[in-house]
Amino acid sequence: MIHFTRALLRKWTESLLHIHDSPQRTAAAFAVGVFFSFSPMLGLHTVLALVVAFLFNLNRVAVILGVYTNLPWFIAPYYTLTTVGAAELLGVKTPPHFAHQLRTVFDLSILSREFWAGLAALLSPLVWPYTLGSLVGAVVLGTAAFFITRPFIEAGRRHLRLHGHLHHHPPGAP
Question: How big is the chain by its Cα radius of gyration, in Å?
Fold first, then answer.
């Protein structure tokens, strides 16, 4: 898993270095993708990020690379921690015996009305903590992505120019 993540990170970094846009705009596009990746709009993150990319004329490749930073092994811990943290801040208590009730609901057929009614009843008190927690987390991670990515893109492009692998394009040039 760690080898897969490193290889993926290397491939994403290489892609970001070859985008013909300024480091600031490339980092901003990547940060927008990271924001949507960790936003409460799970399931709609790709579509929403691309809409924003088109509206603000951001590089779609950088946005998509940012969207897919939320890898499968991050999703459950991230949304759990941000929801629990926001629930604490909002004073929302999880239903008693939450894990047991959740297992009971998932013992039902996903196609049954009882499954969906039970899931809605169990999760409804957590809608605001989920929304607030993941929204704040997405803002923090998106902001961090911009400030971390920009110097790496600048340094990587300098390195590539010095070694003749990248030609300098003025900002905004194709």
Answer: 20
Q: What share of the chain is helix, strand, coil (3-state, %, to 5)?
A: 75, 0, 25
Please report whether residue 107 resides in a domain: yes
Please give the residue range of the domain that contains residue 151. Answer: 7-169
Q: pTM of the predicted model, to two decimals?
A: 0.77
Cα dihedral 136→141→147→152 (10° resolution): -170
Residue 74, CA distances (Å) to 70, 81, 92, 103 in order: 6, 11, 24, 21
Residue pLDDT, tens place only, 39-60: 999 889 999 999 999 999 998 8
Q: Contact, 39 vs 138, CB < 8 A?
A: yes
Taking the CA atoms of residue 7, residue 9, residue 13 and residue 16 in that order, the dihedral angle to the nearest 10 degrees is 120
Q: How many domains does the chain have?
A: 1
| Residue 45 in domain | yes
SS3 state at 69 = coil
Residue 17 lies in a domain: yes
